Amino acid sequence: MTYEEFIEQLKKRAHEELGYPLEGMDFFPEGYSSSDQNMIEWIKDSNLKFAGNESEALLMDIITMEIPNTGNINNVQRIAVHKMYENAQENGFDAAFQKIHDLQKDAVNANIDLDRLEARGKSDYEKLEDQLTLRPLNYRLHMLDLKNCIYRRINDFVLYLYQVISDDGHNLLTSKIKRNEMEKWRINEDEVMRSALENTARLYPAAVFDQRTQKEEKFMEKEFTRADITMQAPHGKMILLSSTRTTNSAAALFYPGVIQKMIKIMGGPFQAVFMNTDDVLIFDKNDNRASGFARTAKEGSMMGEMLSGKPYLCDGKQIIPGIIVNLYSDGNLEIDND
Fold first, then answer.
1. How many CB atoms lie within 10 A of CB 338?
2. Residues in the chain with pLDDT values less than 50
3. What one-character-per-residue DSSP string does 275-335 give?
4. CB neighbours of 211 closer than 8 A, spacing ≥ 6?
5. Do the beta carbons of residue 46 and residue 62 sit within 8 Å?
6. Which is nearest to 68 in space by CA: 23, 25, 12, 19?
């Protein structure tokens, strides 16, 4: 099967078997460019998402498909189609097509709460407040969104403000809050972010992983000693911090009280390495392995899941390196927007 035949077969089966509308499919070839500002931003964002390289000319072939049957949500999926073709050549067309099937399954199976969408449309902050959450994303890979979204920057990454559309324990569907939406709430932005951080901690409590028991335990609901939660590792010990949801769990380090409690457990300031958007490794202040793990995180993380390639020193008031950012003094998020 040639590349062109593969693309046509992909469209045909997505339409006939999964109900994707043909009019909702578009193919954008490598090298595609545009004079339209919205398309230029879309191209840059696509290049950052798939190649980690900002450019105004598309660096790969992309096919977009509008996922059907997702309620009132316009869910358009971008796919780097050449990688799918390589998968088809190696493992057969059905194996490659499974990606499309999985994308639709995840979107359709999410239990979309229409009341939440209605509250969003009416700018009803009182109903939205307990649905707001913060998610960690790499700053450079998502910088094109920053002018329109609400976030707090922490050196290499940001905590974005999202609404949880649905979460049934298996499928998590979230949507970024746009700045013009938040302005309609007439609520101070710092208050919104503080509330969202506390809400994230409530929805997805911080958890630590004990390698010996092979399970996570809620971090803020139990007293721990270093020995209770230490992962066994050569030449020293480290702790894996996440959350009970284990998705976007790197934000757990910034929950109220978490850094302070970790300082107590570690016996003083510690190093944090963000392995991806889900996991944070905690090391002693002088453990020289932290830099190596940080490099591994930068080089080995899947595109879109990398946060930073640096270890961060946490002393309860600051996170270093690079720009010194006031983070915690009394348990509240205190980072200013850039």
1. 11
2. 71-74, 110-111, 320-338
3. -SSS-EEEEETT-THHHHHHHHHHHHSPTTT---SSEEEE-SSEEESSS-EE--SSSS--P
4. 231, 232, 240
5. yes
6. 19
Q: Are 277 and 137 in contact (CB under 8 A)?
A: yes
Measured CA to CA, the distance from residue 302 to residue 168 in angstroms comes to 25
28-32 long-range contacts (CB < 8 A, ≥24 apart) are 28/58, 28/61, 28/62, 28/63, 28/64, 29/58, 29/61, 30/58, 30/59, 30/60, 30/61, 30/82, 31/57, 31/58, 32/57, 32/58
Other beta carbons within 10 angstroms of residue 118's beta carbon come to: 12
Q: Are 219 and 261 in contact (CB under 8 A)?
A: yes
User: What integer pLDDT is reported at residue 332 of this predicted model?
Assistant: 31
Q: What is the pLDDT of residue 338?
A: 27
Distance, in Å, from the CA atom of 61 to the CA atom of 144, rounded to the nearest integer, reads 20
Q: Which residue in 338, 337, 306 sits closest to 48, CA to CA? A: 306
**pLDDT at res. 201:** 92
Under 8 Å between Cβ of 141 and 52: yes
CA 181 to chain centre: 21
Which DSSP string do the residues of 199-251 spell out, in sequence order?
A: HHHHHS-EEEEETTTTEEEESTTS---HHHHPEEETTEEEEEEEETT-SSGGG
User: For the purposes of burial, counting CB atoms within 10 Å of the CB of 78, is it exposed (0-12), middle (13-18) or buried (19 or more)?
Assistant: middle
pLDDT digits 0-9 by tens, 186-215:
888 888 998 999 999 998 999 998 766 667
Pair 40, 56: CB distance under 8 Å: yes
Residue 256 to residue 332: CA distance in whole angstroms: 6
CB 318 within 8 A of CB 137: no
In terms of Cα–Cα distance, which of 127, 117, 226, 232 is closest to 174? 117
List, in sequence order, every beta strand (DSSP E) within 5-142.
25-28, 62-66, 76-80, 132-138
115 CB burial (10 A radius; 0-12, 13-18, 19+): exposed
- Whole-number Å distance between alpha carbons of 290 and 309: 10
